[in-house]
Amino acid sequence: MTSSGMNMMGKIIFYEDRNFQGRSYECMSDCPDMSSFLSRCHSCRVERGCFMVYDRPNYMGNQHFMRRGEYADYMSMMGMSDCIRSCRMIPMHRGQF
């Protein structure tokens, strides 16, 4: 993939513990069920792009929009439980409006 194609992809990293500690899981595209990768999620880092995260598998339940940045104590900040179970990358718009 070209470097310009890589820049269009999103990247989010979920961590089991606060302050980016514990086991981690990295996503660069949609993930319908993350429960086999992490038992809980207390922090995350969005390195590229934007994502919608959900507290149930298959993009169901409560959802939160995540843009580029670091969320060291994401769960208490957003008022979610400790279970993010799916995420979907929001594609970047290319072209004219």
From TrEMBL:
Keyword Repeat: yes
SUPFAM superfamilies: gamma-Crystallin-like
Keywords of the record: Repeat
InterPro entries cross-referenced by the UniProt entry: Beta/Gamma-Crystallin, Beta/gamma_crystallin, G_crystallin-like
Stretches that traverse the bilayer: none
Presence of the UniProt keyword Lipid metabolism in the record: no
Span of domain Beta/gamma crystallin 'Greek key': 10-48, 49-91
A single MF term (Gene Ontology): structural constituent of eye lens
Single biological process term from Gene Ontology: lens development in camera-type eye
PANTHER family from the UniProt entry: BETA/GAMMA CRYSTALLIN, CRYGM2B PROTEIN-RELATED
Protein family membership: Belongs to the beta/gamma-crystallin family.
Name of this protein: Gamma-crystallin M2-like
Organism: Seriola lalandi dorsalis
Lineage of producing organism: Eukaryota, Metazoa, Chordata, Craniata, Vertebrata
